[in-house]
C-alpha cells in the first residue's frame, strides 16, 4: 500500500495535528472527507479519495509557484546527489554565500546581509535578538522593549507570541511572555473600512498611538517596533493608506528600529520581492521564510543593513560575533530550492504576473459583495479575505461550514475565526480565480 493511501483501520490518534481541531478531525470520517492529501501538482492537491482541490492559499502562503515545480524538484534532487547536509557553524558552502548575495540584491537598498534559519518563527526570534544586541553594542543596552501590534502574527516562538497580538496564541502561555512588550492598536474596523478595495482610506491616525507609547515608556527603553506590512494570518488586514510611511517616520525620530515581518509578503505575494518595495517604505530589518524557496524545504531568514551587520563586527576577529544560529541554518537542500525559486521568479516573470493577477482577484472577490452573511471583503495584491458574520454564540462555525462545503466543490480555502482567506498561486489563471470565487459563493449559500 502506498504511503499516500489511508488504511481504513489505521488509528489517527498518535499524530497531534498543529493548529488544528484534533478531536473534530478524528472523531468522524465525515469530518475529514477530502482532508487527507495524497499528492500535488501546480495549483492543485489530490485527496486520498482521488478528488482534486484547487489550493486557494498556496499551501500556507508558501507555494506561490505551485506544487512540485519541475525546476525546483530537479534542483533538490541534484543537490541530494552531491551534498546532503553541510555543517553551518564555522563552515559554509559556495551556494549559501551566493544565495545570500542574490537575496540581498533583490532587497531594498541598504540591505546587504542575510542570516538564515528554518521558519518564520525563527526569523522573528532572530530579528528580535539582533535588535537587542545591536542596541547593546552601540551602548544603548537600555533599549529593551518591543512594540508589536494587536492581531499581529509573528509565529509561535516565545518572542513571536509576545510581540504578536492574537489572543488565542497568547493566553495559554502568558507566564512565558517576554517582559516589557507593548502593542499598537490593530487597524481592523468594519464600521469604518468594510469593503475597501486595497488600502483602506481610514485608520492612518492609529499609527500616532506609537507616540503615546513612546511618551509612556520613553524612547530610550524601546528597541524595536515589529509589524507585518500586511497582516496575513489575522485575515488579510491591509494597512491604511500612509500608515507604514508614518510608522517609519516615528521610529526614525525616536531611534527605534522598525522590523517588517515579511514571512508572507516576501518573494511574490505583493508583486515585488518585498512588501517594503511595494509600499516604498524601508525598515531596518526584514524577516522572510515561506516563499523564499516555495515551501519545498523549511527555510527562513533575516535581512540586515550594512550598518546593523557592521555594528556586530567588533572585537577580535577570531571570536564569534553573534551567539545565535541553528543546526539547519542554510540547509543545503533549502538553499538549492531557494536558488531555483529565484531563477523561476525571474525567468517566468512572476512579479509582473502577480501585479496583473492582483486586479483580477480584486474584481473577483468584490463581486461577492451583497451575498448573505458577508460583512467585509478585503484585498491586497494577491491576497484577499471574506469575513462572515458569526453564527449566534458559535464563532468560527460558519467559516468551518463554508470550508467544508468548498472542499466538496473542489477548493481548499483557509479559514481563521469567521474569515475565509485566499492567497492563490502566482501561476493561477484568471479563470481559476473566477472559479474559486464561484465556489466560495456557492459554499457560503450552502453553509447558510
Ligand atoms: C508574518 C508571519 N510571521 C511568522 C510566521 C511564522 O512562520 P512559521 O510558521 O514558518 O514559523 C508566519 C506564519 O504564517 C507569518 O505569517
From TrEMBL:
GO terms for biological process: biotin biosynthetic process. The keyword RNA-binding does not apply. PROSITE patterns: AA_TRANSFER_CLASS_3. It comes from the Bacteria. InterPro entries: Aminotrans_3 (IPR005814), Aminotrans_3_PPA_site (IPR049704), PyrdxlP-dep_Trfase (IPR015424), PyrdxlP-dep_Trfase_major (IPR015421), PyrdxlP-dep_Trfase_small (IPR015422). Transmembrane segments: none annotated. Its cofactor is pyridoxal 5'-phosphate. The keyword Transferase applies. Keywords: Aminotransferase, Pyridoxal phosphate, Transferase. One of its GO terms (molecular function) is pyridoxal phosphate binding. Belongs to the class-III pyridoxal-phosphate-dependent aminotransferase family. This is Aspartate aminotransferase family protein.
Amino acid at each position: 500500500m502506498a504511503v499516500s493511501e489511508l488504511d481504513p483501520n489505521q488509528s489517527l490518534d498518535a499524530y497531534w495535528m498543529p493548529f488544528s481541531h484534533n478531536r473534530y478531525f478524528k472523531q468522524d470520517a465525515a469530518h475529514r472527507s477530502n482532508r487527507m492529501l495524497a499528492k500535488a501538482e501546480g495549483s492543485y492537491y489530490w485527496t486520498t479519495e482521488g478528488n482534486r482541490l484547487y489550493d486557494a492559499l498556496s499551501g500556507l502562503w508558501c507555494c506561490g509557484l505551485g506544487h512540485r515545480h519541475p525546476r525546483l524538484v530537479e534542483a533538490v534532487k541534484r543537490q541530494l546527489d552531491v551534498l546532503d547536509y553541510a555543517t553551518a557553524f564555522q563552515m559554509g558552502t559556495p551556494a549559501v554565500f551566493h544565495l545570500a548575495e542574490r537575496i540581498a540584491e533583490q532587497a531594498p537598498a541598504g540591505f546587504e546581509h542575510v542570516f538564515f534559519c528554518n521558519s518564520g518563527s525563527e526569523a522573528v526570534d532572530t530579528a528580535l535578538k539582533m535588535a537587542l544586541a545591536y542596541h547593546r553594542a552601540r551602548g544603548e543596552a537600555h533599549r529593551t522593549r518591543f512594540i508589536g501590534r494587536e492581531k499581529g502574527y509573528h509565529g509561535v516562538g516565545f518572542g513571536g507570541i509576545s510581540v504578536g497580538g492574537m489572543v488565542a496564541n497568547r493566553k495559554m502561555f502568558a507566564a512565558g511572555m517576554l517582559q516589557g512588550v507593548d502593542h499598537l492598536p490593530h487597524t481592523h474596523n468594519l464600521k469604518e473600512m468594510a469593503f475597501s478595495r486595497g488600502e483602506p482610506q481610514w485608520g492612518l491616525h492609529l499609527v500616532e498611538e506609537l507616540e503615546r507609547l513612546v511618551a509612556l515608556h520613553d524612547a530610550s527603553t524601546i528597541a524595536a517596533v515589529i509589524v507585518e506590512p500586511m497582516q496575513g494570518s489575522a485575515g488579510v488586514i491591509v494597512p491604511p493608506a500612509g500608515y507604514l510611511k508614518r510608522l517609519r517616520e516615528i521610529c526614525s525620530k525616536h531611534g527605534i528600529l522598525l522590523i517588517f515581518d515579511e514571512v508572507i509578503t516576501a518573494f511574490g505575494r505583493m508583486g515585488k520581492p518585498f512588501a517594503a518595495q511595494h509600499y516604498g517604505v524601508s525598515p531596518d530589518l526584514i524577516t522572510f521564510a515561506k516563499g523564499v524557496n516555495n515551501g519545498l524545504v523549511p527555510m527562513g531568514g533575516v535581512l540586515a543593513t550594512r550598518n546593523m551587520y557592521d555594528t556586530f563586527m567588533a572585537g577580535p576577529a577570531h571570536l564569534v560575533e553573534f551567539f545565535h544560529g541553528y543546526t539547519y541554518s542554510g540547509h543545503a537542500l533549502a538553499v538549492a530550492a531557494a536558488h531555483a525559486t529565484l531563477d523561476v521568479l525571474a525567468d517566468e516573470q512572476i512579479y509582473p504576473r502577480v501585479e496583473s493577477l492582483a486586479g483580477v482577484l480584486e474584481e473577483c472577490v468584490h463581486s461577492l459583495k451583497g451575498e448573505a452573511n458577508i460583512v467585509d471583503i478585503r484585498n491586497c495584491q494577491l491576497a484577499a479575505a471574506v469575513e462572515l458574520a458569526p453564527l449566534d454564540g458559535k464563532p468560527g462555525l460558519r467559516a468551518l461550514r463554508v470550508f467544508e462545503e468548498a472542499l466538496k466543490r473542489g477548493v481548499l480555502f483557509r479559514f481563521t475565526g469567521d474569515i475565509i482567506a485566499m492567497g492563490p498561486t502566482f501561476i493561477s489563471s484568471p479563470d481559476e480565480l473566477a472559479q474559486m470565487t464561484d465556489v466560495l459563493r456557492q459554499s457560503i449559500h450552502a453553509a447558510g
